[in-house]
Amino acid sequence: MSSCKRVAGATGKTTLHIDPVTRIEGHLKAEVVVEGGKVVDAKLSGGMFRGFETILRGRDPRDSSQIVQRICGVCPTAHATASVMAQDAAMDTKVTTNGRITRNLIFGANYLQSHILHFYHLAAQDFVQGPDSAPFVPRYKNSDLLTDRNKGLAAVNAAAVDQYVEALTVRQVCHEMVAMFGGKMPHVQGIVAGGSSEIPTKERLIEYAARFDLVKKFVIEKYLPVVYLVGSQYKDLFAVGQGHRACIAYGVFPLNDAMTEFMLKPGVYYNGQDHALDPAQIHEDVKYSWFDDSTTGLHYSKGQTKPNPHKEGAYSFVKAPRYNGVACEVGPLARMWIENPPLSPIGQKALKEHFGLDAKRFRDLGEDAAFSLMGRHVARAEETWYMLDFIESWLKEVKPGEETYVKPEIPDTGVGTGFTEAPRGSLLHFLSIKDKKIDNYQIVSATLWNCNPRDDKGQRGPVEEALIGIPVPDIENPVNVARLIRAFDP
Amino acid sequence: MSLSRRDFVKLCTGTVAGMGISQMFHPSVCEAISGSLNGSRPPVLWVQGSGCTGCSVSLLNSVNPHIKDLLLDVISLEYHPTVMAWEGEPAMEHMYKIAEEYKGGFFLAVEGSIPVAADGKYCIIGEAHHKEISMVQAMKDLAPKAAAVLALGTCAAYGGIPAAEGSETGAMSVRDFFAQEGIATPVVNIPGCPPHPDWIVGTVVVALEAIKTHGLAAGLGEVVKLLDSEGRPTPFFGENIHDNCPYLPAFDDDKMCKTLSDKDGCRMEVGCKGPSTMADCYKRKWNNGINWCIDNAVCIGCVEPDFPDGKSPFYEM
Ligand code: SF4
Ligand code: SF4
């Protein structure tokens, strides 16, 4: 059986369809053209439209944080966060310090969960071989896995598979941490307009801290080392997938009540230069998306959602956001590149040992290695390490028993935008209220930034562009294509 | 044998000590089930329509039994887009092959609703035999061949948020789709947005046990007897939250919370939908017994057929 639909062209080009791309959230198809063992063109198609924007219209604004969480069961806390920030702005509510920190503790626990889930349960099977039992079989035949690369490393493979199982428990424990102040997970009750609904008690904080210690140990002793170990076996994957080398981040985990300082700061990077984030520069194109052409090029605050599922020439339900016309990627790499924090001691040591790199901070990796298939996994692991200290500091800062919630008043009219970062990348929610009801609600999610199709100028989306040059030595087993896509956590 | 008796009793009774055991799950019954779980693993095909993957993520949180034991010892998960190793057309064709090979003998788990507008174009789940397969098509192809369908989560069970007022995709529940298409395969609804992992695992294990004891048709008949008028297994959805809520005495005394962080009283006046909701969250709690919606804020009635429209606004202050 061939591994995917192939259409051989007369010119020595072959078109591959990979549909579904598995181990992601949602429905995604990749269509790549391979020539001379490399990808020369790529199209990414989002195959699902649910229409949250229209479903939200006319509802009580406070309902939105519950509804929008159902956009993604992996990162509901991110959507809840963006939504309540938009509501706080639109309702002119000032969240208490304790409310802000409690929100960070809920959302932070889900960051840990999401990154661990992504590496072990979504991406790891791209590099190591699981047990010979469903759902780990069938799999690609010649998959270029660790076991094939270096027979001596079968032990590494076995360790990674053991960690897969251990990580299932660790991510479950992260969800327990979310639930402590979030009520339950997936889909929390605790992140609400006006703050957070559960005031932390001393006992609860001790329970949270105990679980956090377990997760921290796993991140330091297992996750970080295994990412570098696997990376050292796939050095070639640090040299591919650079894409547009452009990225954007909105800032996440506010460290002050004015929301001007963040654990990871906002910013934009393109053409080799840093720029301050100006939300006015964000527009969405729909020429190649199944939406009505009359809605193209709009700023998100003027955004409209008019599906046109049979539109000629279009190939995706994902709109194409652009910053000042630039296709920017989002996610851990974007945040780490923009913040440029110190690297973990484990990372510094591994980079020296395996790559001869003297790297102290993230940008010391260099643009080529950072903006690469493996670089994105490194960024995610390093970000997980980087946030450990912050979670510890919030645990010290949060005041047991002190108010986390202020009751918001729904105004007759109001507008607000919530900017945050889902674990997988930048997320904004725009809300406008009229007659105390939702008048317009617009969502620009990480998937929109990363997995978009061509814009009105024909410019490829970030993942499409990153696919260019990806090696496909064996057309029957195009394992690198999905490796690249999954490195983004699409 | 990876489901210990202790694990099973825990699964059946919820994690709060001393809350009592539902009739169906008397310890001796639990023992009988856990003692006879050896044998072959039935194939499960898990398809995702218009949903958010939250049901799958929730199932990963299964503690008793651990998700690893469920995947490697209880069922044979032959297709699951978020978990499986393979991808693309061969993965889809594998799914079709299993459905043919095990015709009448596999379970179809459906997560997400089925959007029927625009010829199913609003949800394309992959390609097989060189053509795009919509969720609508996959359901027509697979559901008649399944032994039973598990409609997992409120989207699959009742339409959920993708089918809420304002939706343009024609999203519908499995049972409505079956009625429309004349598909007679039995459906068990396991609602919840998302469903608790115990609700999923518990239902699967009860079904397997009934089938082992009574044979396929009669065993499924036994399972169907456990369902309420909304197609939900009564052991998990047989009791009203409000009638069993720890804040019921406060409600009776008219002692009401004033805000979402004020925990001194019943949550009715801030919007709690416990009175119109049937589920055992009050005793089972969530995430390994850590917390639950009402202790945290309010119940939004996520297991009910009229969620979200009939439960909205969620907050009333
Ligand atoms: S909190 Fe909700 S379920 Fe509990 S008594 Fe009050 S209204 Fe009923
Ligand atoms: S308490 Fe209510 S909202 Fe929460 S999970 Fe149970 S039924 Fe759903």
UniProtKB/TrEMBL annotation, chain A:
Q: Name one GO cellular component term.
A: periplasmic space
Q: Where, subcellularly, is it found?
A: Periplasm
Which residues does Fe cation bind?
C75
Does this UniProt record's set of keywords contain Metal-binding?
yes
One Pfam family recorded for the sequence: NiFeSe_Hases
- The UniProt record gives the binding positions of Mg(2+) as E53, I443
- Quote the catalytic activity from the record: 2 Fe(III)-[cytochrome c3] + H2 = 2 Fe(II)-[cytochrome c3] + 2 H(+)
State the Gene3D superfamilies in the record.
Cytochrome-c3 Hydrogenase, chain B
Name the enzyme group at the top EC level.
oxidoreductase
Please indicate if the UniProt record lists Metal-binding as a keyword: yes
Q: Which keywords does this Swiss-Prot/TrEMBL entry list?
A: Iron, Magnesium, Metal-binding, Nickel, Oxidoreductase, Periplasm
Instruction: Tell me the GO molecular function terms.
Output: cytochrome-c3 hydrogenase activity; ferredoxin hydrogenase activity; nickel cation binding
- Binding of Ni(2+) occurs at C72, C75
Report the coiled-coil segments. none
Assembly with partners or alone: Heterodimer of a large and a small subunit.
The family this protein is said to belong to? Belongs to the [NiFe]/[NiFeSe] hydrogenase large subunit family.
Q: Can you say what this protein is called?
A: Periplasmic [NiFe] hydrogenase large subunit
Q: Which organism is it from?
A: Desulfovibrio psychrotolerans
What is the name of the gene encoding this protein?
hysA
UniProtKB/TrEMBL annotation, chain B:
Biological process according to GO: anaerobic respiration
Gene3D superfamilies (UniProt xref): Cytochrome-c3 hydrogenase, C-terminal domain (4.10.480.10), NADH:ubiquinone oxidoreductase-like, 20kDa subunit (3.40.50.700)
Family matches, as Pfam families: NiFe_hyd_SSU_C, Oxidored_q6
User: Where does it mainly reside?
Assistant: periplasm
Task: Name the positions where [4Fe-4S] cluster 2 binds.
Answer: H242, C245, C266, C272
Q: Which domain of life is it from?
A: Bacteria
Q: Where is the NADH:ubiquinone oxidoreductase-like 20kDa subunit domain?
A: 52-205
Record-linked InterPro entries: Cytochrome-c3_hydrogenase_C, NADH_UbQ_OxRdtase-like_20kDa, NiFe-Hase_small_C_sf, NiFe/NiFeSe_hyd_small_subunit, NiFe_Hase_small_N_sf, NiFe_hydrogenase_ssu, TAT_signal, TAT_signal_bac_arc
Q: Where is the signal peptide?
A: none
Q: Which cofactor does it need?
A: [4Fe-4S] cluster
- Asked if the Swiss-Prot or TrEMBL record annotates the protein with the keyword Zinc, the reply is no
GO MF term list: 3 iron, 4 sulfur cluster binding; 4 iron, 4 sulfur cluster binding; cytochrome-c3 hydrogenase activity; electron transfer activity; ferredoxin hydrogenase activity; metal ion binding
Q: How does it assemble?
A: Heterodimer of a large and a small subunit.
Which protein, by its recorded name, is this?
A: cytochrome-c3 hydrogenase
What does the organism's lineage look like at the top? Bacteria, Pseudomonadati, Thermodesulfobacteriota, Desulfovibrionia, Desulfovibrionales
